[in-house]
Structure formats: C-alpha cells, structure tokens
Fold these 4 entries.
Entry 1:
Amino acid sequence: MKKRKILIADDDQDLVRLISLELRDCGYEVLTAGSGEDAINKVYDEHPDLVILDYEMPKGDGIYVMTKLRTVLETFTIPIIMLTAYDSKDIRGQAFRLSASYFLSKPFKPSDLLQKVKEVLKGLSSESR
C-alpha cells in the first residue's frame, strides 16, 4: 500500500521538525515548505494527500495559499488543516469558507494534530472505495 503524503507548510523550522518526526513515526511520507509560494509549488509538483498549513508565512499567508489551491481543479479537493497562532474569527471563517478540514490553534498537542490527520485521511480512504 502506498504511503500517504503530507505537506507541512510552516516557516517555524523547529515546529516543522517536530511534526515531521511525529508523522514519519506513524508511517507517512512528509514534505515541507517554508513559505506560501513554496507550499503552492510543492502541492502542484507533489500532489500530497493532505496539507498542514500555517497562517502566517513569508511569500503568501495560509489564506492566500488556500485560495490558490482552491482555484485549480487538480488541487481543489486536497484536504487542508490550518494550524496557526492567529485564532481570530475572521481567519477561522476565511479558512472554513475555503473548505479547511480543521482549524487548530497553536500551541497544540501533537496527539490532537495526529488525530485530525488520521480522521482526514480515513475520510479519503472511504471516498475512494
């Protein structure tokens, strides 16, 4: 069975390393991006099964990235978990209008993120049957 591919888009390298280790320990293939522009390019090139996306990043914030991904047929349905320290109603509303699967506020428990990842990917598995 093919490993599920997850892109972590966040400019906090320590956090990216932590999440990457957790996900790899669970058997996922992990890709990383440190800016909005890099995240968009990686999604177009690699077609991950899921994107974990920070809100505040250089070269395009999370809402910008989501908007770009939702306007292209090939990336329209890729699930996105928004992970951010900016938990305002406005940002949360924008993320859900752009079909975010979940919105997690920093700081967060890695176990909570892993649970959300498993829920999203389980939903993908049942859709493809």
Entry 2:
Amino acid sequence: MSILHVVRHGQASFFSEDYDRLSELGRRQSRLLGEYWVRQGYHFDRAIAGPKKRHRDTALETARAFADARIPFPELETMAGFDEFQADQLVAHSVSELSTQYEHVRRLHETYAAAEEQGERKRSFQKFMEAVTVLWARADFESPALEPWAGFSARVYAAIDQIIAASASGSRVAVFTSGGPASVAVQRALDMAPDKTLELIWTLRNAAEVEFLYTGNRFTLSTFNSAPHLPTQDLWTFR
C-alpha cells in the first residue's frame, strides 16, 4: 500500500496585486507542516508541485524542515495537472456575462463591489465565487477561454493516475497544489458529484493535507483537512 499526501498551499496574498505569493503566515504554515512530517519520521519517494509559485514555495518551505534535520527530501518535480482551476478567468466571465444572465450573480457581485471593510469584502467575494463555480461545474455556461469542469477534473484524475502508475509498492508521495485539485482527488476516491466536490474546496485550510492510500486500481481517502501541525486557530486560513 502506498500513501499520497495532497497538500493545499500555504496562505497566499489574497486581495493583493499578486495573489500567487505566500504570505509570511503561509510560509510559517508550510514550515510547520515540514517539521511535523520530520517528527512523524516520514521519508518521501517523490515530491510534486503544481505549476503556480504558491505551490512550489509551499513545497520548498516544507523541504527546509527536512534539510534542517539533515533528512533527505526528493528533488521537487512540477506537474501541470495539479494546477488550480482558472479562477481569474471565471471571475472575469462572471462579471462580463453571467451577471447579465443570472440575477443572483449580479446581486452578489454588486454586494462584493460595494464592500469596503476587509472582512465584508472576503465574505461577499466568497458568496459570489460559490455561486459562479456552481454554474461552471454544472456546465450552465461555456467560454472558449475557460477550462470546463469536466476538463479540469479529467486532468487532475490523469495526474493522479500518472503517480499511481509510476509508484512502487510502499511509496510515499507528496503533492503541493490548491484546494480545487485536492478536492477533485477526493471526488475521485469517493465518486462524488461536482457540486459536493465544490463544497470541499471552501472548507480546506491552507497547508492542510488530504491523505490517500493506493495500490493498483484502489485509491482510498484516508484523511481530509488534516492539520495537526496547525494546533491553534490563529494559524487557520482558507485563502
């Protein structure tokens, strides 16, 4: 039996000009994950990151804990299949087109656009994103510039299949990615509907891990949203 650890990236820079950059807290979360893995005595056969900077930097911060403990950690690979869905394009499409087609989307976007206080901006943006991703996952609209849900989930499945096919028995593999691919991995294990899969994305903490057991054709969920390395709520974030 082999083990796959799928890690959501540490806290990124939400509402900044460059979201794809770990915050200082995000770096700390990632480092704490590495320190926890060292204490657990984990030895990894492969380490894979999605193509975003926040994916790679989460992996590198985690790996530093192994370096400090003088424990080998695999050279980091990059796998495009573990990229996040196209959130920026989805938001742009929602503003330009969905707001004219769906009254509830228009109202949610207006509420977000009018929000001034930081907490309210985050809450209103979350409601807006939940609404438009449901429409996207149900294929209620299409755009040549936007990867459909079916394509997104298929490439994540394919990336997982590549790992399974290349793994020797008893392998331990770490994947550093985003909430979308991590939740789609759960979808694969549990044969979940897209709308239920989307619900998982919004609950997954930064630097939390989802663990799977696999061998041959078997791919089983072991733990979800596991974060014993983040013991206090001041370390919990969701962006």
Entry 3:
Amino acid sequence: MAGSDTSTGTNTSASATAIPRAQDQLFKAGTSAREKYAALVVGRSGWGALLKHELIVTLAQSCPGALGLLLRKTLYPYLLGSCGRNVVFGQHVVLRHPHKIHIGSNVAIDDNCLLDAKGDTNSGIRIGDGVFVGRNSILSCKNGDIELAPGANIGFNCEVFSASRVRIGANVLVAAYAYIIGGDHDFSDPSVPVAEQTRVSRGVDIGDEAWIGAGAKILDGVSIGASAVIGASAVVRETVPPRSVAVGIPARVVSTR
C-alpha cells in the first residue's frame, strides 16, 4: 500500500520499530479466528466488545441514504473513544480500533474512508473540530499517532500514514491524492527483503494554514512550516520553512509568500 511502502528516504537517525505485517497476524498459529479479528479490527478482546462492534457495523456501515446517515451519527459514537456534536459519517466508513479514535464537533468523514488506529502502545487518531476528510481517504496507524488539528481539510483519495507521529495543523488544506507518509523501511541489508526489515519513523509535522497541492508526497522526517505551499505532485524530502513555496521532484523552495 502506498502510504506504508513508498517512502525511500534514508532515516539514519530515526527510531526503529518492529511492526508485524497484517498477513502475519491473520495466519498466526495457535490463535482463533475471533482473536485474530479482534486484534486487527476491534482492538479489544472479549465477546462484549466484539458483539457491540459487529452489531453497530452491521446495522449502520452500509445503510444508504438519510437513514444510514442517522444510524451512523447515532451509533458510531458508541464505538469511538470520544465524539463531539454534529459528526457526519458517510456510507462505508470503516473504523478499526475505534476506541482509540477521538473526534471533535462539526466533523465530516465522507464515504468509503478508513480510520485505522491500530497499535499496541499508541494513542491513535485525534480529529479536531471542523475537520473534513474526503471520500476514499485513509488515516492509517501502525503503532503511531495521527492528529488533525481543528479546521484541517483532507481531500479525496488521500492517505495519511503514521508509524510514530503525524500532525496536520489547524486549517491546513490537503488537496486530492496527496500522501503524507510518517514511516519508512530500513533497507540497509540487501540480503534481507525490505518488507522483512524493521520500520523506521521520525514522523511528519505540517504547520498551521499550509497548503499541500494535489498529488504531493510528504516523506518521513519532514516538517512543513506554517502557511507554506507545496506544489502539485511535489515530493518533499526536506524541511520547508514557514511561508515558503516548494515545488518539484524533489521539492525545492522557489519563493516566499
């Protein structure tokens, strides 16, 4: 998947973490199907958590029209760690480890989004007031944390991935098809497949009121200053100062606002 595998920076100072692959968890010997499902999706053990999750998902996740919106608005907060007022969940919104997802008020999560707070020691996903997450977008944790500050706007078909910490500041505009990749793989040993080497992550921080153009890719370890602009399809591998305009592959600062 792009957000978890496309970063190619050399994060020599990053912390290394061993994160099990989904297929390893799915086919782990000596574990029942219920336990595997609970570990990957529900995030809590026990029949009570599983039955509550399955009942709410069955009733609400795929229900179309106004009834579906009402059911999700009413029922999804029972799965979440916390949820404010006037939160709209589109059809087929998927929640994983939902007890580690915290959502403020006046938030819209559009159709077909995935909010995945998976991890053993992380805090999960925190979404501030007034945030919009566009259709088909993914917020994906692998033992990392994701914060969307108040007023952030995530466009359609975006991915935000975190193996440590990714913060998107207040009133940040992220255009469609952007990738924000808070993690990488150690590839220093050519005798071992990259997928089997440890993950490294320094995280990503995007300052308030920045604008990330369509198709841009923000790689692990990058900080983008407040009110900066990143051009469409740029690949950002280095820190961008506040109010700077950066474009290209790799991205270079070309002007200051």
Entry 4:
Amino acid sequence: MIQNKKEKASHSNKILTIIGIVLCIILIPILVINVTLIVKSYTNKDEVPKIGGFCPLIVLTGSMEPEISSGDLIIVKQIDGADVKENDIIAFFDPDGNGQSILTHRVVGITEKDGQTAFYTKGDANNTDDRLPVTADKLVGSYKFKIRGMGNVAMFMQTTTGLIVCVVLPLILLVGYDIIRRRRFEKRNQQDTAALLAELEALKAEKASKESSENE
C-alpha cells in the first residue's frame, strides 16, 4: 500500500516537474529576448535592435498581403546590400518617411544612386511602386519568415497590462507552483514516513503477540 502511494506521488511529481520545465522553456526565452531588445533600443537608438543578426519586426499594414499580413511578426536577417536580389523581400527605413519608420516590401528593381546600390520596391498589395528608391544604407535586413498574428501579441506585451499578463503573472504562477509542489512533496514524504512507522509498530506488536502466545 505504501509502495503504491509512493508510486502515485512520484508520478504526480514528475508531471508537475515537466509542466514547470515547459513553462520555463516558454517564459525564460521570451523574457530574455524582450529585455535584450528593450536594452538595445535604449543603448543604440539609431539602430534597429537585433539578436545575432536577426531582427523581429511587427507588421502594421497590409501592403504585402497575402504574403505578409498586418499583425504578423516577421524575422529579418541583416545582410549586405550587395547580396540583395530582385524579387527579395527586404525591410528598410522608408526614404519617403520620417527616418524612423520601417517598411517591408519586395524588390522590383536594382540600380545605382549616388555611388551606391539602390533598390526599387513595391508592396505586393499596392498598385504602384514606392516613390523613392532605397539606398543600401537604409537596409535593415532580408525577410526570412513570419509568425502569423504574433505581432499583435508582441504589441500587447509592450503595454503595462500585457507585461503583467504575459510576463509578471506567469512568473508569479511559476514561483507559486514550485512552492506548492515542494510543500506537497514534503507533506507526502511526511505521510509516507508516518505510515511506514505505523506499519513497523504494527509488525512489532504482532511479533510480540506471537512470541507471547508461544511462551504460554
């Protein structure tokens, strides 16, 4: 009976441990990436925050539909302008904007401007090409892949409510779960120990009773 209880407790603890590991695997990378991007955005205000040459960007418009939709999170890789080819999708600082807005459009032509490579670009869903060519110094990176709808989640996480819901609350739950798991484990050990001692006492009493009967 005690063995069965131990097996059940061990099985339950393994399940809880696996859940805890999964939560750590999900939460810790998200937290590290967010903190890294936030720190880099403050220390290098003139550059787009990157991790290992890769940059996550949130798509705010539908100019590249159906390939990329508004609310998607895209990953672009930092590359040299000489490596860009026609039909590539690139992210770049909008030469027709405020100098800080970033567009992600397809390259429809390559030329030279002021002694450096420049790209004619166009959104797949737009009827016309972008007005100004993009010089290589405005290049952020080359589009690699997207995570559909994750941009909306990322924007939510940047709000106070999102930070609490997606980071702070899960961490509190993780810590609370670990405390509860440890207490349950300790309680079960104490119960198992008490049950084992009670069984030993019962065996001793039974043995003593048999010896007493034999002596009579």
